[in-house]
Write a structure and sequence with these properties.
Layout: H1 3-20, E1 25-27, H2 28-37, H3 44-56, E2 60-65, E3 68-73, H4 75-81
Antiparallel strand pairs: 1-3, 2-3
Helix pairs in contact: 2-3
């Protein structure tokens, strides 16, 4: 799999995980564990690079809390997950099964 495809999948997995959270937020360490469940085993630095990219695209906001980075899904990121908006560089969500 090419690096870009892995990055696009990882970005979508991150946004979907944030959507599932009651406060639309998670830490970089928890997101690392989620990505590993999808066979994307990457370093914390790699994940933080992706979180920086998602922040630059307006899909998430982030704050540092000590050694941890907390990210929160934005309305734009939610619209991508819900297929109402396309953010280039993030895999598109599959249509809901019906």
């Amino acid at each position: 799999m090419s690096r870009d495809i892995i990055r696009e999948h990882a970005r979508l997995i991150i946004l979907r995980e944030l959507q599932k959270q009651p406060n639309y937020s998670s830490s970089d360490s928890m997101l690392q564990e989620v990505l590993e469940m999808f066979a994307i085993a990457k370093s914390r630095d790699w994940i933080r690079d992706e979180l920086n990219w998602l922040t630059d695209m307006g899909a998430v906001t982030k704050v540092s809390a000590g050694t941890v980075v907390i990210v929160t899904l934005t309305p734009k990121g939610l619209e991508h997950v819900e297929r109402r908006l396309v953010i280039e560089g993030i895999k598109r969500s599959s249509p809901p099964e019906g």
